From TrEMBL:
Its biological purpose: Involved in the biosynthesis of ADP-glucose, a building block required for the elongation reactions to produce glycogen. Catalyzes the reaction between ATP and alpha-D-glucose 1-phosphate (G1P) to produce pyrophosphate and ADP-Glc.
Site (Could play a key role in the communication between the regulatory and the substrate sites): residue numbering on this chain: Q66, W105
Domain Glucose-1-phosphate adenylyltransferase/Bifunctional protein GlmU-like C-terminal hexapeptide residue range list: 306-409
Organism lineage string: Bacteria, Pseudomonadati, Pseudomonadota, Alphaproteobacteria, Rhodobacterales
Known pathway: Glycan biosynthesis; glycogen biosynthesis
Primary enzyme class: transferase
Entry-linked InterPro entries: ADP-Glc_PPase (IPR011831), ADP_Glu_pyroP_CS (IPR005836), GlgC_bac (IPR023049), GlmU/GlgC-like_hexapep (IPR056818), NTP_transferase_dom (IPR005835), Nucleotide-diphossugar_trans (IPR029044), Trimer_LpxA-like_sf (IPR011004)
Protein name (Swiss-Prot/TrEMBL): Glucose-1-phosphate adenylyltransferase
Single Gene Ontology MF annotation: glucose-1-phosphate adenylyltransferase activity
The UniProt record lists the keyword Transferase: yes
Name of the gene this protein is made from: glgC
Length: 420
């Protein structure tokens, strides 16, 4: 039995949908798609889906891009260029290339696959794993593939277990005792509970497993349907629920954890508040997401930079970091850093204070700046003496302040402030 199923990943491909802007991240996605947004000190969001596939044994992958894709494409070319075609390994980047019509880009998640049927055919795979490229989690897809094959499903849907009152924000799966999906409800006001646990419900993760022959025929049929929006969650999955066999695969069955008592970690960092919190959570003594686990590494492009450096040791001018993550190339010069996460090549200057700050790469913080509860975009130059996080009304005049009290700082915001 084990020998029979151990090769499922080798007979599969991962098709990563990475074209979305992520508009709720506001200015963070002005220049990059959501999957290309930085996370965790040195990685990008898309690295989690790709790393899960690689660690699961999948060596054939495609990344469909659309919105402002240059940053994402460049990252994949630099960080994911180790696949070797002579070993039957591939990572193809599939920009929306108007293959169906010169006036049409990808019209939906299913259409992104439909427009690339010939490329998927060329892989010669039996199974296709459809993945969202914009979530943070660690998952063994081989286990989900086995579940799909063992149950004889037409589609297997990856599902999270969430409190029933939170289900209204998701596509909810109503299942029977065997976890067969009997109804798919998009953002219901009154989500159905799970069998045996009415206070919890199953919601879609945007992860699907199909037999490729089945999906191929379904995509061609959907493409000819003028009433379809050509979307997996809106059209294809509900159609299979009604007329085929759709199974729910619980994330708790295949999530990768380093400790038995660890929670099943999954985050949608789709808002500034959620993005800030997920990054700051990594500075905890024992974070729920373990980026130090060598048995399930998160692969990425690593710049060649020197180690982090801390300088000055005087009263009020001491380069220090407490309960923080400091990436390579950073210079902490006479700055107090607390509960913060600094990405690659951040330079800070004397008498500055960073408190609960998420600082993206290549930022420079001027002298005597005090920054609290902030997200600072890549390449920003913080002027001397800037104070953010102490007066929300003043901050809101120049920067984006969220409902949760987090301030997003970009260079264009600072430039506007300087001109005022």
């Amino acid at each position: 039995m084990e020998t029979r199923y151990s090769r499922l990943a080798g007979r599969s491909m991962a098709f990563v949908l990475a074209g979305g802007r992520g508009s709720r991240l506001n200015e963070l996605t002005d220049m990059r798609a959501k999957p290309a947004v930085y996370f965790g000190g040195k990685t990008r969001i898309i690295d989690f889906a790709l790393s899960n596939a690689l660690n699961s044994g999948i060596r054939k992958m495609a990344v469909a891009t659309q919105y402002k894709a240059h940053s994402l494409i460049r990252h994949c070319q630099r960080g994911w260029n180790f696949f070797r075609a002579e070993r039957n390994e591939y990572l193809d980047i599939l920009p929306a290339s108007q293959r169906v019509s010169e006036s049409l880009w990808y019209q939906g998640t299913a259409d992104a696959v439909t427009q690339n049927i010939d490329i998927v055919d060329s892989y010669g795979v039996d199974y296709v794993l459809i993945l969202a490229g914009d979530h943070i989690y660690k998952m063994d897809y081989e286990i989900m593939l086995r579940h799909h094959v063992e149950t004889g499903a037409d589609v297997t849907v990856g599902c999270l277990t969430v409190p029933r009152q939170e289900g209204s924000a998701f596509g909810v799966m109503k299942v029977d005792e065997a976890d067969r999906i009997v109804e798919f409800i998009e953002k219901p006001k009154d989500p159905p509970g799970m069998p045996g646990d009415p206070d919890q419900c199953l919601v879609s993760m945007g992860i699907y497993v199909f037999d490729w022959k089945f999906l191929r025929a379904l995509l061609i049929e959907d493409a000819d349907n003028p009433g379809s929006s050509h979307d997996f969650g809106t059209d294809l999955i509900p159609g299979i629920v009604k007329g085929g066999k759709a199974m729910a695969h619980r994330f708790t069955s295949s999530c990768v954890k380093d400790r038995a008592d660890s929670p099943a970690y999954w985050r949608d960092v789709g808002t500034i508040d959620a993005f800030w919190k997920a990054n700051i959570d990594l500075t905890d003594f024992t974070p729920d997401l373990n980026l130090w686990d060598k048995s399930w590494p998160i692969w990425t492009y690593s710049e060649s930079v020197p180690p982090a450096k801390f300088v000055h040791d005087e009263e009020d001018r001491r380069g220090s970091a407490v309960s923080s993550m400091i990436s390579g190339g950073c210079v902490i010069s006479g700055t107090e850093v607390r509960n913060s996460l600094l990405f690659t090549m951040v330079h800070t200057n004397s008498y500055a204070v960073l408190d609960h700050a998420v600082v993206l790469p290549y930022v420079e913080v001027g002298r005597r700046a005090r920054l609290k509860n902030v997200v600072i975009d890549r390449g920003v130059v913080i002027p001397q003496g800037l104070v953010v996080g102490e007066d929300p009304e003043e901050d809101a005049k120049w920067f984006r302040v969220t409902e949760g009290g987090i301030t997003l700082i970009t260079q264009s915001m600072l430039d506007r402030r300087a001109r005022a």
